[in-house]
């Protein structure tokens, strides 16, 4: 009995740690563009995002039900399967954070759980119909839809304010609008991503016999724990991914940022209403790309887009492979497998964290000029601009409506 309780506590703790990594991994979804345009100061932005993530987590439980009563059949798996799946998700989250890639925390979780279930139980324990309809299809459709909406919204925004072309500070009013739209994205993120960990913990409680399988709603303490944990993770910033979304994909102007955030928020809120466990990161990235294409003269860094796309494709299978290996250790070694998995997971997370300290990205350098090279978007340290370069920048700023 004591061993069973210990495993439940361990799984819940691991789920909350995943929730924490989800928070700092996805802060960029809401706050990269307002930080890039100067609409919000970096530390103010992450604090605002954390508060609204906390509030949003209490507004809906539809996505939680998809996780706890949709993808995995609770009568065919054990707690060790969830444990192994979480290890796969956390490992991929930490690796992509180190590389500055805005990959999907959601798909990392689904991949980890599916991989662990395939090894620890069987394919029959997975409802592939739900996986296809509420995970795979939204992953394909949502980023494209958000990109199109952002493209159109950017075109409309510039068309409506064309009279400000060539006038300094002509479109800076969009910066004020960004405060509202980025706040809406942060709120929407809480309604979707926080729910996924709630679903995992609810599934854990059902498997342990601590909650009836007929009750799909997460308990109040589960909602509160997940809400506060993802808010704390969000407040930590995740500056590497903020830099990629804010500067690595395209140079974001206020009107673009406003359009991208509007598109992101509307897409996420619609998916939360229908219980689609989509990737908020993919939606935000698609919106930024769409807004970049929508502004005349803007440059989209397609090499960075390509690397992000590869990350999206690899997320499900890569997290699934790690989850499967962790489940294999449990199948072979039982309780000792759980211990070994735990030690290896701590070693990997600690190793990635220590590696990140070599080229730390903080609120002070996250929006530095970037170079599109390597796996991660790295800070490019250039000499001070010459007088001719400054004159060219001023001329470009006037052509672009004074938004530089």
Task: Walk me through the structure.
- By secondary structure, the protein is mainly α.
- It has one domain.
- It is built from 14 helices and two strands.
- The chain has helices spanning 2-37, 42-56, 62-71, 79-99, 105-120, 128-160, 173-207, 220-235, 239-248, 254-274, 280-294, 302-333, 335-356, 387-399; strands at residues 370-371, 378-379.
- The protein has a two-stranded antiparallel sheet with strand order 1-2.
- A hairpin with a 6-residue loop joins strand 1 and strand 2 (378-379).
- Helix 1 runs antiparallel to helix 10 (254-274) and helix 7 (173-207) runs parallel beside helix 10 (254-274).
- The longest helix has 36 residues, at 2-37.
- The chain is globular.
- The model is unreliable at 371-377 (pLDDT under 50).
Q: Spell out the helices and strands N to C.
A: HHHHHHHHHHHHHEEH
Strand neighbour order, sheet with most strands: 1-2
Tell me the Rg in angstroms.
Answer: 21 Å
- CA-CA gap between termini: 64 Å
Approximately how much helix is present in the residues? over 70%
What class do helices, strands and sheet pairing give?
Answer: mainly alpha
Oligomer class: single chain
The largest sheet, given as strand count, sense and whether it forms a barrel, is: 2 strands, antiparallel
- Quantity of strands, as a count: 2
Question: How large is the share of residues in beta strands?
Answer: under 5%
**Tally of discrete structural domains:** 1
